[in-house]
């Protein structure tokens, strides 16, 4: 399959462009914290970019927990076959 027949999301140029666009949006979201008043409940929440870092760490923790749970609950391929 040549590049003209590939889906537009599978083309390397489109993927590269989307990465830059999403990175710019994320950077703008973090930079917007300068202009938006922050009302932290805890002192750690007052740190610039805390919400972005906290969200990233929480996402990584959920992925690691899901991988661990998947390894714990995994069954062999013939689990449902009759003996």
Largest sheet at a glance? none
Low-confidence stretches: none
How much beta, percentage-wise? under 5%
Number of helical runs?
2
Structural class of the helix and strand makeup? Answer: mainly alpha
Q: Portion of residues in helices?
A: 40-55%
Shape: flat
The overall strand count is 0
How far is it from the N-terminal to the C-terminal residue, by CA? 43 Å
Radius of gyration: 21 Å
The helix/strand series, from N terminus to C terminus, equals HH
Question: What's the SSE blueprint?
Answer:
Layout: H1 12-31, H2 50-73
Outline the structure in words:
The chain contains two helices and no strands. The chain has 83 residues and is mainly α. The chain folds into two domains: 1-36; 42-83. The radius of gyration is 21 Å and the shape is flat.
